[in-house]
Amino acid sequence: MGYFWALMSVLLVSCAQLIMKWAMMTLPPVSQHAELLMAFLSLSSGALALFVGLFAYVFSMGCWFLALRRIALSKAYPLLSLSYVLVWATAIWLPWLNESFSTGKLVGVSVIFIGLLMVCLPQRKR
């Protein structure tokens, strides 16, 4: 059950990152304080998305706490790096986030994923 909570945390934090990226793209620049305040007060789609992303972070932390009660930190913590892989792949796949693919980024994400496998897969006894 601990791995379930850890994976839920990873999924929620990944969703939060993607939602907040989209929200920040739709909100006016921070230098326009009056417009930003009006966007929040009017609950524009960007402001609503920002709140949804923040709540996803809160729920992610709740899942993380439940995961830490059930599995060792040495196994749980590397699972968080899975969010880097998920966010990168999803951001490339979703056209409205305007993220570009590059071979260098693919290599970097692959190294993260291979490292995750090396830490989390059970070791063979010699």
Largest sheet: none
How would you spell out the order of helices and strands?
HHHHHH
pLDDT < 50 runs, ≥5 residues: none
Range of helix content: over 70%
- Large-scale geometry: flat
Q: Total number of helical segments?
A: 6
* Overall number of structural domains: 1
Nearest-integer average pLDDT? 85
If you compute it from the alpha carbons, what radius of gyration comes out, rounded to the nearest whole angstrom? Answer: 18 Å
Number of strands: 0
**Helix- and strand-based class?**
mainly alpha
| DSSP strand content | under 5%
**Span between N and C termini?**
29 Å
Q: What would you note in describing this structure?
A:
The chain is mainly α and 126 residues long. It has one domain (2-120). The protein is 77% helix and 0% strand. The protein has helices spanning 2-26, 33-41, 45-70, 73-79, 82-93, 103-120. It is flat, with a radius of gyration of 18 Å. The two termini are 29 Å apart.
Give a quick set of tags describing it.
flat, 126 residues, mainly alpha, single chain
Quick summary of this structure?
With 126 residues, the protein is mainly α. 77% of the residues lie in helices and 0% in strands. The chain has one domain (2-120).
